[in-house]
Specification:
With about 250 residues, the chain is mostly helical. It folds into two domains: about 20-85, Arc Repressor Mutant, subunit A (Orthogonal Bundle); about 95-180 and about 185-240, Tetracycline Repressor, domain 2 (Orthogonal Bundle), CATH 1.10.357. It has twelve helices and no strands. The protein has helices spanning about 20, 30-45, 55-60, 65, 75-85, 100-115, 120-125, 130-145, 150-180, 195-200, 205-215, 220-250. Helix 6 runs parallel beside helix 9 (about 150-180). The chain is flat.
Length: about 250
């Protein structure tokens, strides 16, 4: 897939080293679009640790020194990779009717992107410099939530919680897929070690024993939808409670 990366100026930002100030304009067939798309393909296939300026250059049949003309450092490359994935992020604001729809769409889009690019969670936790595409998506989200009466502070808190939820769910999905399981078995009973089985056999922990017998739930779209609705129900209840408190305070 070709990932289009918007061209940015060479201007320095107040003398501070910045990915977006250090990038040069494309002047040859070796351009930022190809470099970033190649780096993303490497990360998708081999993991983030496999990405390096030298490896990307090798894949492109170029030298590392030639790439440094477009991407001054690996840090800049990672920032550009992260920002490029937000180009894939779709947010049809015109079709979203309420704040719950906005958050639900965000959660599903985030899950789709994380499943496609598992390394994204590592970049997010690495204190990156967020670029224009990421900022564009955040602006769309905040504007949409504000349109439905959600203030900025509340919106940021909600987005943070949703980010943790989606990342955790996708990480569990990834772990589940990596462990060997029978193809046709939807619910799989975890196998406790011998010591745990001996403890459960005492009959002192009936609820844990029933849980083991029930088996772990398969993580799929339905499980994600159910967990997401639980989260959104809780957010809705909290927002209504705060609204009642504000109304009561105003009445007094």
């Amino acid at each position: 897939m070709s990932i289009k990366v918007p061209k940015r100026s060479r201007q320095k930002l107040s003398g501070i080293s910045s990915t977006w100030g250090a990038i040069v304009q494309d002047t040859s067939s070796l351009n930022r679009e190809r470099i970033i798309a190649t780096a993303i393909a490497i990360a998708d296939q081999h993991g983030l640790a496999a990405v390096s300026i030298r490896r990307v250059a090798s894949q492109l049949g170029s030298s590392a020194m030639a790439l440094y003309h477009y991407v001054p450092s690996k840090r800049d490359l990672l920032n550009l990779m992260l920002d490029a994935t937000y180009i894939e992020f779709q947010f049809p604001a015109a079709t979203i009717k309420d704040w719950r729809g906005a958050l639900s769409h965000l959660a599903w889009e985030s899950r789709r992107c994380l499943k496609r690019h598992p390394w994204l969670s590592l970049l997010h936790t690495g204190d990156p410099e967020y670029g224009p595409e990421c900022i564009r998506v955040l602006e769309q989200l905040l504007a949409s939530l504000a349109r439905f009466g959600v203030d900025i502070r509340t919106a940021i808190r909600i987005l943070g919680i949703l980010f943790v939820f989606v990342n955790g769910f996708v990480a569990s999905e990834r772990a589940e897929r990596s462990s060997p399981k029978p193809d046709k078995q939807r619910r799989l009973s975890p196998r406790p070690p011998v010591f745990s089985k001996a403890i459960l056999a005492t009959g002192k922990f009936p609820n844990v024993a029933r849980f083991i017998d029930m088996g772990a739930e398969f993580l799929d779209d339905q499980a994600f939808e159910r967990a997401l609705n639980w989260m959104l129900d809780g957010i809705s209840a909290d927002m209504k409670r705060h609204a009642r408190s504000r109304d009561t305070a105003a009445a007094n």
